[in-house]
Amino acid sequence: MSEPKYRVAISGFGGLDNPEPGTPVARALRLGLPGSLTIEALGYDPWITGAYSPGLVDRIHLTVPLARGDDAVLARLLAIHAASPFDVLMPCLDLEIFVYARLAERLAHAGIRTLLPGAEQVARVTKAALPLFCYANAIATPRTVLVTNVEDVPFHADQFGYPVMVKGLVAGAARADSRDDAYAEAMRLRDLWGGGVLLQEVIDGDEYNAAMVARGDGTCLGLVTLRKLGVNWRGKSMIGAVVRDPDLAHEARRILNALRWRGPLELEFIRSHKDQRLYLIEMNNRFPNWILLSHWAGSNLPAALVRHAMGLRPRGRLRTRPGTAYVRDVEEIVVPEGTVEALSRFGSAAVASCAARRRARRARPRARVAVTGISAFHEVAPGLGVARALRQASEVAAVYGLGQSAYDTGAYRADLFDAVFGMPAVGEPEPLLARIREIQSKTGLDLIIPCTDIDVATFVGLRETLARMGIRTLLPSREALASVDKHRALPRWGGRRDWGAFCVPETVVVRTTDAMSRSALAIGFPLVLKGGSAPPQTVYSRYSAEAAWRRLRQKGQRDVLVQRHIAGEEFAVSVVCDAQHRVVASTAIKKLKQCERGKTWAARVVPLPDVVASLDAMTREIGWCGPLEAEFIRDVFRERLSLLEINPRFPAWIGFSADAGVNLPRQAVRVALGDQPEIGNDDREALFMRNCREVPVTTVTLAAFVTNGMITHA
Amino acid sequence: MKKAPRLKLRQRVRLERGPNHPQGLLVDVYSATLCVCNDAAWDLLTALKRGATADELARLLTARYDVAEVTTSHDVAVFTRQLRSMGLLDVGA
User: Is B92 within a domain?
Assistant: First the structure.
């Protein structure tokens, strides 16, 4: 009997660094459904970067916002179905489940199948309903309080004590260590979702999740249980492994039986270190974003759902393999601008790929290059993009990663690195040099590109020693590095220095509350506060400025930059300077989409020759050598570019420079080897996009890095 | 005389040692727990993979590490108790 044709529509391809489940659901279907499969991606704006992943979906369609009402949503969906028919609809966003549950019957009448709960069931798994549901069914859960007026959050948070979890009514959660943190997070969630917030007791323990597809009669088609092994700053699992935990499975099935759920469901638990009890902390009415793991574990739940929705018999019993694990890294792609333009104009577009760039004229591969900053665990580090660019450089014979821990997500990227080596923690130079000697003796390493601010500073100090070892670098002097320190350069130049193509906004470094208040009065609101690795915060009042200042100080930030807020579009320019401090290669981009931490997740190349010329004057003045990135904002009022930040290294988006034809990391290698740069033509019709991508690993591989400090891919 | 029970690692335990991890790893695939092993632990685990009594394990350590049997018996008892508390050991007839 031949395989049926599967035609599926899926939503939830956005989310940037906090990926929505639609992309991994689609990936699971591609891997788990044999035969003919077409996938229609549904989204609310063109920047659903996951949908552009090569070979993943067939078409992208813009749907109407849910706020327009059920009739409008249904009308648009039926129009999409008329043009690009599909048989199964898989909504993957929390708010959509309410709407599509109501529309299920009307969708079925149009020939569109769903596997969704009834409206009553949906209401039972809301975050606000969790405490009552758990009480009624004797399920252990942390103490949770709904605070409808966020102004009351400090009072209630004080009653809990700290830390406390602050959770949005729809999505989002953060751990608050102080009253200021709790209030700031509550305001942020209220601005996102409206309404109040939930405060929840923090339970110290290990996190476990259970994903399932429920039939509606209290049983499930399949169940996969996960232990979170690595959780990032958002509390999201970046590394996880399938477990076979009888207690967890039993509790998950007991809850399912009480819910009488139909469709995908995720249950989140904490197993307390104190009493080993499982506490249910959240229920989600859709697949989780780690669901691709279910395919590698032998229980592809999205595929099981589609077949069930279509009335097909299951393909054997779903048996889950414990020990299967995943690491979440990033995928960088190039998208023809025509695709995004068509989607914006017509509401639908077929997904096309950019033609593969012709490789540069063949050179003899001779450089064995190591890069640092190879993780996307908390935020995307530049070493990943540098490695991707170096893979396209014919001068490069091998690329090695220098990682910090088993949590460095790039360590498991066999497509990027020939091997990855664990490095000692930043500190004394001798252990670092000893490790580099060891790596050099194993690999013949002869060039290092440090890719984080800390690594650049460290390797600048070791430059001469490395040169004596026969390892090249392309780095500035200590003095040049000090001169671009953001705490010195921006305040020194702010409001005074005009570089021609750009100026520097007024910037002050503050170290005391009084200085903070004086700066705010002098510069005027709104202001931007920057400190350490925390995302920049825009504040509009003295009260919020002081609260933001206190939060930064509580997190250990001594020097805080205060800068006038400028509204406008953001740009970035990355350059490579030679030993004569001249800019020998550059790429300029306009940032089209940024994550919360300010990293670029979509961009296009733009010509900024005047800016590059001004940067050339700057690098000559300060005596710069090596990579450098400058970030700008174009003031909508004054139509001038203002310099926001200088980074003494390549940016995280630098892989795009290879796609665009310039390949700055390759130019850096050529210059370091004593060759002239070899620049191609900019491709200005290609857009850069990034999305998350899970990589299968085993728990043994994870452990190998910890014990041996090395993973070999080649 | 009553026969000493045979101790055996459960199937969910994997032992790994190789170029990437010469120290030896115990992996519990059910709970995703990972443990690094020293040489003595590795010797015991390898024997427990095949199955062994507590006395056999103590004698193994005594022979390999030249330590008195009273010490090795105690160490084996502590070690196997730890494995049992982690749910990794079967105690047979």
Answer: no
